[in-house]
Amino acid sequence: xxxxxxxxxxxxxxxxxxxxxxxxxxxxxxLTNQRAxxxxxxxxxxxxxxxxxxxxxxxxxxxxxxxHAWVTAPVSNEIVRISLRGFEAEVFxxxxxxxxVVADEVSNRLYxxxxxxxxxxxxxxxxxxxxxxxxxxxxxxxxxxxxxxGRLYVAERDANQLVAIDLGSFKSAGAVGxxxxxxxxxxxxxxxxxxxxNVLSQSVSVVNTKSWQHLADIDVxxxxxxxxxxxxxxxxxVSNQGDDTVSVVDLNSLEVVAEIDVGGYPEGLDVDxxxxxxxxxxxxxxTVSVVDVSQAKEVEVFQxxxxxxxxxxxxxxxxxx
Length: 321
Hints:
The chain has helices at residues 10-13, 17-22; strands at residues 3-7, 28-33, 38-43, 49-54, 61-64, 68-73, 78-83, 89-93, 98-104, 109-114, 119-124, 129-135, 140-146, 151-156, 161-166, 171-177, 182-188, 193-198, 203-208, 213-219, 224-230, 235-240, 245-250, 255-261, 266-272, 277-282, 287-292, 297-303, 311-313, 315-316. It is mostly beta strands.
């Protein structure tokens, strides 16, 4: 069950400052800062802070939509909905340790992995009410939606497998084994390939979504955490927590073609296809690395809040606001 806790009142919104409300639509980054207990909204071009919103419960996951962002708070068992216009926030109770959130605005659905409950829940993103849930094993983590095949893929970290949930019945349609401790997921829709970052295997597993077979493992850096397919570039990016790098994988050859040095303990990844800039959240440094995709090189660093995680889609283009 999901219940509305509150809107964040005037004392909370003072943190946003008048700049947030008065600013015109623009490209922004919505960043969860775990140690600070905040969400930062940055101008994606300049890196300047537009808003800082207090969020209790160690904010972690994030998903941006056309007019809102959704943030998970696993410790306080809450999910927070933030307006991308005025940055007002509403808090909703969601027991079970909400960890990763993904949004599908076509179907008006949110999907959230509940780490401690071992479940995935489906929510109506406008009404913020629970629709369905499915029980899995312990520690479900990364999620990715495959609308073409009518499935939601889930990384079951402690079972070392990926599970396909049928979006019609909202029941498991099968599992496939991958490397050790899969966490982040990414989908190459054109090639029907699903990728999992395997934290303990130092690898990325490749699964064919049509045959539902584990095809290969790609050796990457130490403790890979998040994976991201770059639309139109035939590239996969992998954040390697243990060696402060991002691996670049060619999607045609499935080989690593570059390693990019970034900040300390990189986690979340997102990309602006228009400017060809990759954004990397660095948990240890509390920064965001800005990577020029064409150069495969860090070109700028933005200051974020303490312990920035930003796991999920956190780049919101101006046209989506």
